[in-house]
Design a protein that fits this description.
The protein is of the alpha+beta class. Helices cover 45% and strands 10% of the residues. It folds into 2 domains: 355 residues, no CATH class; 261 residues, no CATH class. α5 crosses α6 and α6 packs across α7.
Length: 745
C-alpha cells in the first residue's frame, strides 16, 4: 500500500520531504530523504506557514451558482404565510419568538433536552412540519465520523502500539542504567521512570524496576489527583496535572481512559533544553534532560517491540494522528537524532555526551532549531511587567525541548496565544469584559474568546461583537489581531487543507461571510450572520472536544505585583452549496487518507460514503434553490425523509457518540486558576420562512446546535458527563449576542 508520505522525514520537521511506502522503513542514509519535485520542499515545521503532504488527499469541490431567489419584505406578516398557524399549533411559539420570526424571517427556540440531532427530523416529520435541512446537521454528522473513527483507531491499534513502545523503551532505558555511569546513568534512571509512568498508566499491573518505584508512584499519585500545578518528582519543574482528567470521548471506555493519561504524559512532559538562573530548571538539570532526550532519540531505531522497531511504531501513531490534528510544534526525537548526526556523525556513542564541549555543541545545535509557537503551561511561568510580545518570545524559548509524542500545533491555540497577555498588553477599558483578569501585576486579557478565532478567520461580525462587549480594549489587541488576520488571509486552499483539523476550520469559513444579493431574504439579515457564528462556534467546540488529547492548549502565563386551501407545504435545504462542497471535500479527504493509511474499518468507510452521497445531493438541491428552480417531487421527498436518509451515517455508533452535549476546555489562565470551556448543549429548533418558486412563503423547521462559552475551575476540567449534569442543574448563560435570533421563551 503506497502513500505519498515518509513520516520519518516528512512529518517531524527535519527540514526535507521524502516519499516511501507506508511500511515506514527506517531511515538509514541521507539519500533517502531528498525532496522529490512533486512535493513541496523546504522545512516542514508545525507552524501556521507549514506545508503538508496530506493536502494530496484533498480534492476541492468547485461550486458555481448565480443566486436569484425572489425576496419577500421584512418584517414578515405571518398571516400571509399559509402554514404558519399549523406549525405554530404544533410548536407553540411565544409572542417574543413569533416577533423574531417576523422580524428576521427565522427564529431559533429551545427544544427540550434533545441531544440527538437526527431524531429531530423524525420528530418534525411525524408532526407534518416541513423540514428545513440545516448546515448544523452536516457539521455534527462529520463530527460523529471524525470522533468515532479516531476512537476506533485508538482502541484497536494505538493503545497496543503505545503500550509496546513504552515497554520496549523501558527495557532499553533499564539496560542503559545497568551499563552506563555518571550523568549517563542518572539520565538513564530518569528515562526508566519516565517510561515506567506511561506503562503503569496503560497497565496498572505492569512490573517496573524497584529503583524508580518511589518517583513513579509519586507521579502516578499526582496524575490521579489532577489538582493543578505541582513540581514533577522526575522532571523537577511544575506540571499542570489537572490536564490528566480523561475527557472528550476518552471517558467511554477504560482502555480509552488509560490511553488518554499515557498520551497526555507523552504529549505534555518536556525534556527541557535550557537551564540557569532565569530558566525553568537548573543548568545541571537541563544537562541531564538533554542527555535523557538524546538517549531516547538515538535508540528508537535499534529498539524493537514485538519484532517492530519503536521507530516504526512511533511513526505510525504520529503519522495517523498528524493527519487528524497536525504536527507537534515542540522538538521531536527525530530532530534530536538529526542534531546528534550533525554533531557526532553516524558512529555516535552515548559516552561522547559526557564530554562537555560535545554536549555544549549539541545543545547549541538544538537551540538553533525552531521554538514552540504555543506555550503549553510548562513550568507555570510568571512574568513581570512590562508585559509585551517580547515576553511571550522569552517564555516560548524557555520551554524549548523535546516531547516524546508532543501535542500538536493547532491554529486556534496559536491565535489565542497571541491574543492574551502578554502579547496584547494591559487592559485600557473601564468595564469588566469576559476576557479581563486581575493578575497580581494588573488587569490583563487572561482569557481569549471563541469569537477571536472567527474574527481572525475573517468575520467582521465577530470582531464587531468583541468590540461592543469590550473584549478588544487592550493596548495591542488591534495590532495583534490585524497581524493574525493578514497572516491567515495569505493561505490558499492547499494551506487550509493540510490536515483534517485545518480542513474542518476551512469548512467553517464558508459560513462567515454575509450572503450577497440573490440569496433568500432570511439569509441577508444581521441576525442570520449571528446564527451562522453560533453554528460555527458549536462545530468548533466539537472539533476541540474530539482532539482534546492531541491539540496543544494555550495558556495565559501568570503576571505578578392558513386561509384557503393551498398546495402542500414543502421542505427546504439551507442554500449554502459552497459550505456543503467544503464539507464534502473534507469527508472525501478523510476517507481517502485513512484508507491509504490502512486504519479505516469497513463500517466507518460505509458511514463516510453515505455522508458523501448526502452532501452531493444537498449541493445539487441548494444550487437549484438559489437559481429559483422548482425542485422535483423526489427532491421534496428526500427532504421530508431526511432523518431516514441520515440513519446510515450513524449506524453502529453508540448513543454517546451521537450526542450533541459535549464540552472541551481550550485555554488555561494561570492567574485565575480557571479554564475556558466551550460546550455544545441540547439541540435547538430553527424556524425559517422561505419562499419557493411558486411564490408561496412557507415556514419550515430543523435542528441547530447550541453553543456555550464559560469559565470553570482548572481543578475540575469538565467531562461530557459532568457537562450534562451542569446543563440539567445550573446551565451557564448563553452569549448575549445570540438574542438577535434566539428566544428562550
Amino acid at each position: 500500500m503506497k502513500i505519498w508520505v515518509k513520516i520519518v522525514a516528512l512529518l517531524v520537521g527535519v527540514g526535507v520531504i521524502s516519499t516511501a511506502a507506508w511500511t515506514l522503513s527506517v531511515r538509514e542514509q541521507p539519500s533517502e530523504i531528498t525532496p522529490p519535485s512533486h512535493l513541496p520542499s523546504g522545512p516542514t515545521y508545525a507552524g501556521a506557514g507549514a506545508k503538508s503532504p496530506f493536502v494530496l488527499f484533498y480534492e476541492p469541490e468547485n461550486i458555481s451558482v448565480e443566486p436569484s431567489v425572489v425576496q419577500y419584505t421584512l418584517p414578515l406578516d405571518l398571516i400571509t404565510v399559509p402554514n404558519f398557524d399549523q406549525v405554530n399549533s404544533r410548536i407553540g411559539l411565544s409572542e417574543n419568538q413569533a416577533n423574531l420570526l417576523s422580524a428576521n424571517g427565522f427564529v431559533v427556540i429551545p427544544h427540550g433536552q434533545e441531544n440527538d440531532i437526527v431524531d429531530v427530523y423524525d420528530y418534525l416529520k411525524d408532526r407534518n412540519i416541513p423540514i428545513f435541512v440545516t448546515s448544523d446537521t452536516l457539521l455534527h454528522l462529520y463530527h460523529i465520523q471524525f470522533n468515532e473513527i479516531l476512537k476506533i483507531i485508538e482502541e484497536n491499534e494505538f493503545f497496543d502500539a503505545i503500550k509496546a513502545m513504552s515497554q520496549a523503551m523501558l527495557n532499553d532505558s533499564s539496560n542503559n542504567y545497568d551499563t552506563l555511569v555518571g550523568d549517563l546513568k542518572k539520565a538513564a534512571k530518569r528515562n526508566v521512570a519516565y517510561f515506567a509512568v506511561a506503562l503503569k498508566l496503560l497497565d496498572p499491573n505492569a512490573s517496573i524496576p524497584d529503583f524508580v518505584q518511589s518517583e513513579v508512584n509519586e507521579e502516578l499519585q499526582l496524575i490521579e489527583q489532577h489538582s493543578g500545578f505541582t513540581n514533577s518528582p522526575i522532571f523537577e519543574y511544575r506540571e499542570d496535572y489537572s490536564q490528566y482528567v480523561p475527557r472528550g470521548h476518552y471517558t467511554r471506555s477504560e482502555t480509552l481512559e488509560k490511553y488518554f493519561k499515557a498520551m497526555m504524559w507523552y504529549g505534555r512532559v518536556a525534556f527541557l533544553l535550557k537551564g540557569g538562573e532565569n530558566a525553568l530548571i537548573s543548568e545541571e538539570n537541563a544537562r541531564i534532560q538533554t542527555i535523557q532526550a538524546s538517549l531516547i532519540a538515538s535508540s528508537m531505531e535499534k529498539v524493537n517491540a514485538d519484532n517492530v522497531s519503536v521507530n516504526n511504531l512511533w511513526n505510525r501513531v504520529y503519522g495517523v494522528t498528524a493527519f487528524f490534528v497536525g504536527l507537534a510544534d515542540d522538538l521531536t526525537p527525530y530532530e534530536y537524532e538529526n542534531a546528534i548526526l550533525e554533531v557526532f556523525g553516524y558512529t555516535f556513542d552515548p559516552s561522547e555526551l559526557i564530554k562537555e564541549n560535545n554536549l555544549l555543541n549539541l545543545k547549541a545545535t538544538l537551540a538553533s532549531m525552531r521554538l514552540p509557537e504555543i506555550y503549553g503551561g510548562t513550568g507555570e511561568i510568571y512574568i513581570q511587567p512590562p508585559i509585551t510580545a517580547e515576553k511571550l518570545d522569552e517564555v516560548l524559548e524557555a520551554s524549548q525541548g523535546m516531547r516524546f509524542m508532543g501535542q500538536r500545533y493547532v491554529p486556534d491555540s496559536y491565535m489565542f496565544q497571541n491574543l492574551v497577555a502578554p502579547a496584547v498588553g494591559w487592559y485600557t477599558g473601564s468595564d469588566a469584559p469576559f476576557t479581563l483578569v486581575y493578575s497580581q501585576g494588573g488587569p490583563i486579557r487572561g482569557f481569549p474568546r471563541s469569537l477571536d478565532v472567527l474574527a481572525v478567520l475573517g468575520s467582521d461580525r465577530a470582531l464587531e461583537i468583541l468590540e461592543n462587549e469590550g473584549d478588544t480594549a487592550y493596548e495591542n489587541y488591534t495590532e495583534r489581531l490585524d497581524n493574525l488576520r493578514n497572516q491567515f488571509a495569505t493561505f490558499n486552499e492547499s494551506d487550509w487543507n493540510r490536515n483534517l483539523y485545518w480542513s474542518w476550520l476551512y469548512s467553517l469559513k464558508a459560513l462567515l461571510g454575509g450572503p450577497s444579493e440573490g440569496y433568500p431574504t432570511f439569509m441577508r439579515t444581521n441576525a442570520w450572520l449571528d446564527k451562522e457564528l453560533n453554528t460555527a462556534l458549536a462545530s468548533w467546540a466539537e472539533l476541540r472536544h474530539d482532539t482534546i488529547l492531541y491539540a496543544k492548549q494555550s495558556y495565559t502565563m501568570g503576571v505578578t505585583s392558513v386561509p384557503s386551501p393551498q398546495p402542500k407545504p414543502v421542505g427546504y435545504v439551507a442554500p449554502v452549496p459552497e459550505f456543503y462542497g467544503r464539507v464534502l471535500a473534507l469527508t472525501k479527504m478523510t476517507n481517502k487518507g485513512l484508507t491509504e493509511m490502512g486504519v479505516l474499518d469497513q463500517s466507518s468507510k460505509s458511514r463516510l460514503q453515505h455522508l458523501e452521497n448526502i452532501l452531493n445531493r444537498l449541493i445539487d438541491i441548494s444550487k437549484r434553490e438559489l437559481q429559483n428552480i422548482e425542485l422535483s417531487e423526489e427532491d421534496y421527498e428526500f427532504i421530508r425523509n431526511f432523518g431516514e436518509q441520515l440513519a446510515p451515517t450513524v449506524e453502529g455508533v453508540e448513543s454517546g457518540g451521537k450526542e450533541t452535549t459535549v464540552v472541551a476546555d481550550v485555554h488555561t489562565d494561570i492567574n485565575s486558576g480557571m479554564v475556558l470551556e466551550e460546550g455544545v448543549g441540547y439541540v435547538d429548533l430553527i424556524l425559517v420562512a422561505y419562499r419557493v418558486p411558486d411564490g408561496r412563503i412557507i415556514v419550515g423547521a430543523g435542528p441547530v446546535l447550541s453553543h456555550y462559552e464559560f469559565k470553570h475551575s482548572m481543578d475540575e476540567r469538565l467531562t461530557d458527563e459532568a457537562w450534562v449534569k451542569l446543563l440539567q442543574t445550573n446551565p451557564p448563560n448563553r452569549a448575549s449576542w445570540v438574542e438577535s435570533f434566539f428566544a428562550q421563551s
